[in-house]
């Protein structure tokens, strides 16, 4: 297996993220997995930087593109597991990444009920973010004929795989899709599927303000099995076995 690391870094990455990458490269070397670093630095336009990285991947001989946000903390074993799944037939597969909001919610729609447990197999979702995702070559290869090649006189001409999009929606009239949702939407229109691996947990770094009162908040529980259940009003019930009553988030 040959992994292409399609990272996009437009701000300084944390030392913890850098440590994750170092351990990923060491683990790949230990297991005899070829990995190519295709990081794009310094471009503040996320959709362009990710499109350039994906275009470089298409021109490479790698099997799968691994996209990881520069603010994501992960385990190297999980990254390789996603890449192996992609090579087994899961077109676009990733982890549940939490949005950076005051009340965090998943960056992908939960499919009714999602069991987060080490025994679970991948679960199909309607669309997803790509903050920690493996995309197989077959997906982008199929998208190339449907897209124009832009910036043809530049050193790195690229296909706009990650260009944001506006689509019609029965409920809201129109939806504005972010660059990663737009890429997944284009792939789905070509017949590919998106998947979530419930066994993978990642951290999404955020800037927060800490006060003395934060010492009074309950400590976070260690990662363990849980069920995410979508409620009728669009909230998500979080159920943890053998724990306190469920918590609902919106």
CATH architecture: Alpha-Beta Complex
* Helicity, as a percent range: 10-25%
What distance separates the N and C termini?
A: 40 Å
Global mean pLDDT = 85
Order of strands across the widest beta sheet? 3-1-5-10-7-13-9
CATH topology: Spore Coat Polysaccharide Biosynthesis Protein SpsA, Chain A
Structural class: alpha/beta
Give the percentage of residues in beta strands: 15-25%
> How many helical elements?
5
Description:
The chain has 250 residues and is an alpha/beta fold. It has five helices and 17 strands. The chain has a single domain, classed as Spore Coat Polysaccharide Biosynthesis Protein SpsA, Chain A, CATH 3.90.550. A seven-stranded mixed beta sheet has the order 3-1-5-10-7-13-9. The longest helix has 17 residues.
Q: What are the SSEs and their pairings?
A:
Blueprint: E1 2-5, E2 8-9, H1 15-31, E3 34-37, E4 40-41, H2 46-59, E5 64-68, E6 72-73, H3 76-88, E7 92-94, E8 113-116, E9 123-125, E10 132-136, H4 137-143, E11 165-169, E12 173-177, H5 179-189, E13 194-196, E14 203-204, E15 226-230, E16 236-239, E17 247-249
Parallel strand pairs: 1-3, 1-5, 2-4, 7-13
Antiparallel strand pairs: 5-10, 6-14, 7-10, 8-15, 9-13, 11-12, 15-16, 16-17
Provide keyphrases for this structure.
250 residues; 4-stranded antiparallel β-sheet; alpha/beta; 7-stranded mixed β-sheet; single chain; Spore Coat Polysaccharide Biosynthesis Protein SpsA, Chain A
């Amino acid at each position: 297996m040959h992994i292409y690391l399609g990272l996009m870094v437009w701000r300084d990455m944390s030392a913890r993220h850098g440590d994750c990458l170092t351990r990923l490269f060491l683990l790949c070397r230990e297991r005899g997995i070829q990995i190519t670093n295709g990081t794009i630095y310094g471009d503040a336009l996320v959709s362009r930087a990710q499109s350039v990285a994906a275009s470089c991947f298409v021109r490479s001989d790698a099997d799968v593109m691994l996209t990881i946000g520069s603010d994501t903390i992960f385990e190297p074993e999980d990254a390789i597991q996603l890449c192996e799944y992609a090579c087994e037939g899961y077109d676009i597969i990733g982890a549940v990444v939490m949005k950076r909001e005051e009340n965090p919610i998943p960056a992908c729609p939960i499919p009714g009920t999602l069991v987060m447990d080490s025994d679970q197999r991948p679960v199909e979702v309607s669309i997803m973010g790509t903050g920690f995702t493996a995309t197989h070559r077959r997906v982008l290869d199929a998208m190339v004929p449907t897209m124009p090649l832009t910036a043809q006189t530049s050193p790195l001409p690229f296909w706009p795989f990650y260009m944001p999009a506006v689509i019609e929606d029965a409920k809201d009239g129109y939806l504005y899709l972010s660059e990663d949702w737009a890429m997944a939407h284009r792939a789905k229109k070509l017949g590919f599927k998106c998947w979530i691996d419930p066994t993978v947990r990642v951290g999404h770094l955020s800037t927060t303000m800490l006060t003395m009162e934060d010492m009074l908040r309950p400590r976070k529980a260690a990662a363990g099995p849980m069920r995410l259940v979508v409620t009728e009003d669009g909230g998500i019930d979080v159920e943890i076995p053998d724990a306190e009553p469920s918590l609902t988030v919106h």
